[in-house]
Amino acid sequence: MYVNMPETSPLPRHIAIIMDGNGRWATQRGLTRLEGHHAGFKTVHSVVKYLGELKIDYATLYAFSAENWNRPKEEVSGIFRLLNQFIDKETADLHKNNVRIRWLGREEHLSAALLAKMNRAVSLTGGNTGLTLCLALNYGGQQEIVDAAKRLVADKIAPELIDERLFQSYLYTADMPGVDLLIRTANELRISNFLLWQSAYAEFYFTPVLWPDFNREDLDHALEAYSRRNRRFGGL
Ligand code: FPP
Fold this sequence. Notes:
Number of strands: 6
Structural class: alpha/beta
Number of domains: 1
Largest sheet: 6 strands, parallel
Strand content: 5-15%
Bound molecules: farnesyl diphosphate
Order of helices and strands: EHHEHEHEHHEEH
Shape: globular
Number of helices: 7
CATH architecture: 3-Layer(aba) Sandwich
CATH superfamily: Decaprenyl diphosphate synthase-like
């Protein structure tokens, strides 16, 4: 039985975004990849604002995957510098806009300072009732499933008690609805280890638009395409 049945209403309740194309956007302009990521963060700011206005309940953004550590060292440290700045600069504003911040991922390899900063942002905004903004950071879908399995074993759960509902309660996203709409920019047609369990019945929307160029109109197009889909969840 599929748990966490996604929405059938015209607006998705949970949107997941793979923000791809920062590097290509920069290269096309003769800029450094880091400048592309900088532009990508600006897009995050405006898209999150719009998601809040649209009254979307959950948005999960793939900020840094468990596999992104394989990038050149300077790019990785640059992305983390930008992430630190993003949390420093945006948390108060997000809080004012009733956004609840969460993060999904493994703590390993993240600096104590960043973890503390994120935990402060999560607890400051924990009582907010608007958009829940999940930052997937040092995140991998397979890793998340493995972590859930480890915790089930650590809790000595009897195999006959394990079903989809119980398993899900051990995921990072335990209390969240499944993904309704998964958007990926920059013409890549992959899921790249993102929200594997949660996307079981997600609708996919791919666009050639590079993430730094992605704007409100592009999100409108994705929402419009979503509203035209006929979601059957395996039924007729
Ligand atoms: C993909 O572009 C982007 C990333 C690897 C992550 C960069 C981070 C952000 C856009 C902002 C996230 C911030 C928050 C706060 C959620 P790419 O480098 O893979 O581009 P390419 O495929 O063109 O090289």
